[in-house]
Design goal:
It is an enzyme of class 3 (hydrolase). This protein is mainly α. Helix content is 75%, strand content 4%. The chain is built from 15 helices and 4 strands. The longest helix has 57 residues. The protein is globular and about 70 Å long. The mean pLDDT is 90. Bound molecules: zinc ion.
């Protein structure tokens, strides 16, 4: 491989990625319906809907500024040989391969984190605040930042160290070992995420006894689903947006409801949303998704093992010979088109699963309650009700509200026959 060719490919990929994203954002903004579609009439009044449109326009304009800024920084850094320069400096500090990679990555993430911080701060305390979403305080925000850095530093650092260590020790088969440890780690995380990571940021309390709990139990019994772990999380600490999710599997599985969800939805609507989550579990979506991502990790690591020792990759970023960390950065960029395609497949699959979970909730609980619950959640989070089909196809892991309502209606119509 030729260094100049690799460099040109890297630049072309970065530019193409930036342009494609901007085009998608642009068509999506233009697709925003000035009046609400017929099926969604009544979920907003006119004033609320205008507010929604303003929020979307403002966040879109802001995203354009922040992404253009990071694109320019990346380009300047790349074209001036910034990666090679930083690497040359790092290797004078230590001969240890693991430490070199850690130091190299730490420097890059600190700089990119610092550059992104003002944008994130503005988005949270100006835009989200202005529209009444933000509930986070400066203190929570600062603590989140520190804890987030610490957690991702420790976890990312440990995994990266293991991969580099295997690379040094096992030669060209390092990817197999790396795959093993990354997979074991992701399964472990999926099982213990709620116990280990969530408590650092949120309080989780078991759902207290009462009418809601009784309704949930009755439903769980009806579909013979063992459901002992229902927790309420204090999402209201940071945002007014509402959600519910399923985590872990086997005996570790638990359902987590945001306190904001409990506040805004009726008991029937909550059970319907929960029935949707049970549907995911009954259809084994969680386990299948886990398996797919393990396979994906294996493919990525194998491809990486083919490229990492090519000097052209490191040299395209300004290095003087093949080295792990420069190879990693170059590979990440070169891999991006494939990653985009895999993302499309995963999103399409996820949307299919969402329809199945909705159908399960409609069939075994109540479609009408699910629809009204979903409407409330959409309104609360000001999600886009009329995304451009292309945008939805690329980015959406859940079908848009209108499509979900239509599909739930069809399930109910079939069952009524
Ligand atoms: Zn779902």
């Amino acid at each position: 491989m030729n260094t100049e060719v690799v460099f040109i490919i890297i630049v072309v990929f970065l530019v193409a990625d930036f342009i494609v994203e901007r085009i998608l954002e642009w068509v999506n903004m233009r697709a925003m319906a000035p009046v609400l579609p017929e099926n969604l009439k009544g979920i907003y009044d006119e004033k609320e809907y205008a507010r929604f449109q303003n929020y979307k326009r403002e966040t879109n304009r802001f995203d354009l500024i922040s992404s253009t800024f990071s694109f320019i920084v990346m380009m300047v850094f790349l074209c001036t040989g910034g990666f090679g320069w930083w690497n040359a400096w790092v290797v004078t500090w230590t001969d240890q391969a693991v430490l070199q990679t850690l130091l190299f990555m730490l420097g890059l993430s600190l700089v990119s984190g610092l550059l992104g911080l003002p944008f994130d701060w503005y988005a949270t305390f100006h835009i989200e605040e202005k529209y009444g979403f933000n509930k986070t305080t400066m203190k929570t925000y600062g603590l989140d930042l520190l804890k987030g850095m610490l957690v991702s530093g420790v976890i990312g650092g440990l995994l990266l160290s293991a991969v580099v260590w295997f690379y040094e020790w096992a030669g060209s088969f390092f990817w197999l070992y790396a795959w093993g440890i990354v997979s074991v780690f992701s399964v472990f995380m999926a099982m213990f995420y709620s116990q280990l990571i969530v408590p650092l940021f949120n309080k989780q309390t078991p759902l207290e006894a009462g009418a809601l709990r009784d309704k949930i139990n009755a439903f769980a019994e009806k579909v013979s689903f063992k459901l002992d772990n229902i927790f309420v999380i204090d999402g209201s600490k940071r945002s007014t947006k509402a959600n519910a999710y399923f985590t872990g599997f086997g005996p570790r599985k638990r359902i987590v409801l945001y306190d904001t969800l409990i506040k805004d939805l009726t008991e029937e609507e909550i059970v319907a949303v929960l029935a949707h989550e049970v549907g995911h579990n009954k259809k084994r979506h969680t386990v299948q998704f886990m398996l797919a991502s393990v396979i994906q990790t294996g493919v990525i690591l194998w491809l990486f093992s083919l490229f990492v020792n090519q000097p052209a990759l490191s040299m395209a970023l300004g290095g003087d010979r093949a080295c792990f960390q420069l190879g990693l950065i170059a590979f990440t960029i070169l891999y991006s088109p494939l990653s985009m395609i895999l993302g499309l497949v995963m999103n399409a699959w996820s949307r299919k699963n969402e329809y199945q979970a909705d159908a399960f909730a409609a069939r075994y609980y109540d479609g009408e309650s699910l629809i009204s619950g979903l409407k409330k959640i959409s309104v609360k989070s000001l999600s886009n009700l009329t995304p451009h089909p292309l945008y939805e196809w690329v980015y959406y892991s859940h079908p848009s509200l209108l499509k979900r309502i239509r599909a739930i209606g069809q399930v109910e119509a079939v069952d009524a026959e």
